[in-house]
Design goal:
By secondary structure, the chain is α/β, with parallel strands linked by helices. Helix content is 45%, strand content 15%.
């Protein structure tokens, strides 16, 4: 038995075989019910309960109507703050300076390195407009203008992330956004100095002590204390994601993001211990996170199962990671490289690690992925912090039609059209013809008057 062989090799005969099998489900593309099970596990996380949607709608409407009064009510209720007033809904300069002074020098240095690398990557995304003139001397150009005000939501529940501040604010800085506001929950009045330091580096204008759906509503509609913004970006829990969806249209949003996910393509040459570590790294984010292994090696899959058990024992967030792997973790045994690409494109993962002997061979056939990591020394964790590309990425299969956060998300692209006298004379008749064909005679007349035509 392959499981017992693995256990004997590592001197762990006491580990129960059923324990290993319970970690992540193994699906085989040869099985008759593969498609049914595969679709089930892909879609199970994509359903939002009607109860949560109704709660979010209630909060959003309450904040829209009652402004700061509602914010204070919800912050007291959800973030365990006993005394609160409008003057304490944001961090003072003194609070920020005092907190930043407590930041560990190593953490500060790492944030500085990350800032520089993320900035250097994103500065290449700056939009370059163009201007063309056709044969009739018509001038047609395309330009961009930065969004004026944005709001950045930074999580502050189970974890608070300086990296989220950098990834969301730096592209906005490069785009030329004039006013960047940030909101982060201050659970029990606690402050994360790393988050505040990153915000200071990114020239955030004001940092609000708010979280949840109420923070999103406040940014979208504005209150006496909270500035109304033109676009809201940043990750959050299910309530935050639903709130962003609810206010979309009143305010722009980045993407409707779901829980984190990774898909790893591996073969017999891959290191199973490293793969297990990468699967765990993603699953510790959230109980709803999904980690998927796709491989043509049955032996590798079983070894990965073993190392999952071994490594989880020493993980501080063992409970979260175990629930994530147990509920949504998958190992998919495929027959060939063609199936690898087909399955990966269906998953359209947020993060894709191609950890095979020749990873580049899949680049042509893989079309759907938020961010791609090539080779054994490119774990997704490096992309989360310091590689340079953005870690705000499409989830839940939306990589089929959307992209990660970039400088372009903070720019409004505009076309500028200048038609010459000769241009209207040459092109006008075709406009009149098409307008009449579409039964829009007002359109036709607006051109005909310039042509001085009469029927």
């Amino acid at each position: 038995n392959v499981f017992l062989k693995i256990l004997v090799i590592h001197g762990k005969q006491k580990i129960n075989q059923n324990t290993i099998l319970s970690m992540i489900k193994i699906l085989n593309t040869k099985s008759r019910d593969f498609k049914k099970k595969f679709n089930y596990y892909l879609n199970i996380r994509r359903k939002y309960s009607s109860s949560k949607i109704s709660v979010v709608k209630k909060i959003v409407n309450d904040v829209k109507k009652n402004k700061d009064k509602s914010l204070i009510k919800y912050e007291k209720k959800f973030n365990n703050i006993k005394s609160l007033n409008a003057n304490k809904l944001f961090f003072s300069k003194n609070e920020i300076e005092k907190s930043v002074k407590t930041l560990d020098k190593k953490v500060k240095n790492s944030i500085d390195i990350a800032f520089k690398r993320i900035f250097n990557f994103h500065k290449n995304q700056k939009f370059k407009g163009f201007n063309i003139k056709d044969s009739f001397n018509n001038s047609l150009s395309y330009r961009s203008k930065p969004i004026n005000k944005i709001g950045v939501y930074v999580p502050g529940g189970r974890a608070s992330y300086p990296s989220s501040v950098l990834m969301n604010c730096i592209p906005a800085l490069i785009a030329g956004v004039k006013e960047i506001y940030m909101t982060v929950p201050s659970i029990n009045g606690k402050i994360n100095p790393g988050v505040l330091y990153a915000a200071k580096k990114c020239k955030v204008k004001k940092i609000f002590k708010l979280g949840g759906a109420q923070a999103i509503a406040a940014l979208a509609f504005g209150t006496k204390t909270i500035n109304k913004v033109d676009k809201i970006v940043g990750p959050g829990n299910e309530y935050v994601a639903l709130a962003k969806k609810e206010v979309s249209g009143v305010s722009g949003i980045d993407i409707f993001a779901g829980p984190s996910e990774v898909t790893i393509i591996a073969d017999k040459n891959s290191n199973p211990e490293w793969i297990s570590a990468d699967l765990i790294a993603q699953s510790e984010h959230d109980e709803m996170s999904q980690s998927i292994l796709v491989s043509d090696s049955k032996d590798l899959i079983h070894k990965v199962q073993y190392y999952l058990i071994k490594q989880l024992k020493f993980l501080p967030k063992k409970k979260i990671a175990s629930i994530s792997l147990g509920k949504f973790g998958l190992a998919i045994l495929v027959r060939n490289s063609r199936e690898v690409s087909e399955i990966t494109n269906i998953i359209a993962p947020e993060h894709l690690q191609i950890y095979t002997k020749k990873p580049d061979r899949y680049l042509k056939s893989i079309e759907n992925a938020g961010s791609i990591f090539l080779g054994a020394y490119s774990p997704e964790a490096v992309g989360d912090y310091i590689a340079g590309p953005n870690h705000v990425l499409p989830t839940s299969g939306t990589a089929k039609f959307s992209s990660g956060l970039s400088v372009l998300d903070f720019l409004k692209r505009q076309s500028v059209i200048r038609i010459s006298k000769r241009g209207i004379e040459k092109l006008g008749p075709s406009v009149v013809t098409l307008s009449k064909y579409e039964n829009l005679y007002g359109h036709a007349n607006s051109v005909k008057l310039r042509l001085k035509e009469r029927e």
